[in-house]
Specification:
The chain has nine helices and two strands, in the order αααααβααβαα. The protein has 256 residues and is mainly alpha-helical. It has one domain (2-190, 202-255): Four Helix Bundle (Hemerythrin (Met), subunit A), CATH 1.20.120. A two-stranded antiparallel sheet has the order 1-2. The protein is globular and about 60 Å long.
Length: 256
């Protein structure tokens, strides 16, 4: 009887949590729409869709943690959604806007970005339980998408023809891909206590950021994600400098 009971438990269908997966589906839909919009040459709507996908992607994780509805299915579904929204969509956007004029070099740069996103997501899924939650290893794919998509959006609204800046854009795309697969650490901001009390002036920071984005979304979003992308290498250089200074203090004879 015990064996039959165990078998019944195994064959019973398991449901999924609706709320966090709805946000994941919204992110996937936004990424898919961005691809279609980019193929039709509507790069502004495509960029907006990718940034909407970022908001939905942030909410699905937050909601899952707050409601204690984290599952292996949700994690895998989220990764597949991220691949579409922050890997394939930005790669196609930047290719159609600028890189297509470079021929094989252009589609290779776009492919390297898409492959970098896939590798970044695969590594994150396999190491998520072993890494320091305060930091990401490598540039997160939503931030990399923010750099690439922000560049496309900014150039499009400023009436800059992609063919004129295809070389620097391809370099930016490849660098974003390299940062994703690198071991450079980036702050995750996951340890921020949203439930605790903070000084009043701290509330002004998000208000100022939101106001700045509202004034000029393409320029401000690109600037924010670009600054975050370079913060990792800068943080690494500062840490290496501190370690070197500490080493010299402990071994003063080696200064010579």
């Amino acid at each position: 009887m015990e064996k039959e009971h165990t078998i019944e438990k195994r064959i019973l269908p398991r449901g999924i949590y609706l709320l966090p997966n709805l946000f994941t589906t919204a992110a996937l839909f936004s990424g898919f729409y961005a691809i279609i919009a980019a193929m039709n040459g509507n790069f502004e709507n495509a960029a907006i869709a990718v940034f909407i996908a970022m908001i939905a992607d942030t909410l699905d994780g937050r909601v899952a943690r707050m409601t204690n509805t984290q599952t292996a299915f949700g994690a895998e579904y989220d990764s597949l959604s991220d691949m579409v929204s922050f890997g394939i969509a930005p790669a196609l956007m930047v290719y159609h806007w600028s890189l297509a004029h470079l021929g094989k070099l252009g589609w290779m740069a776009a492919f390297l970005y898409a492959a970098g996103t896939a590798l970044r997501l695969a590594r994150f899924n396999t190491q998520s339980h072993d890494t320091d939650k305060r930091y990401f290893q490598g540039l997160p794919c939503p931030a990399a998408a923010g750099v690439v998509v922000g560049c496309v959006w900014l150039g499009y609204v400023c009436d800059i023809q992609g063919i004129l800046i295809s070389i620097p854009v391809s370099a930016l795309t490849i660098i974003a891909a390299a940062l994703m697969v690198s071991k450079i650490r980036y702050h995750s901001f996951k340890k921020i206590d949203l439930k605790g009390k903070v000084p009043f002036f701290v509330l002004l920071v998000p208000v100022l950021i939101i106001a700045a984005i509202a004034v000029d979304p393409p320029q401000m979003l690109f600037a924010i994600f670009f600054c975050y992308a370079i913060s990792g290498p800068l943080l690494t250089l500062l840490e290496l400098r501190k370690m070197r200074s500490k080493h010299l203090l402990l071994h003063p004879k080696k200064r010579k």
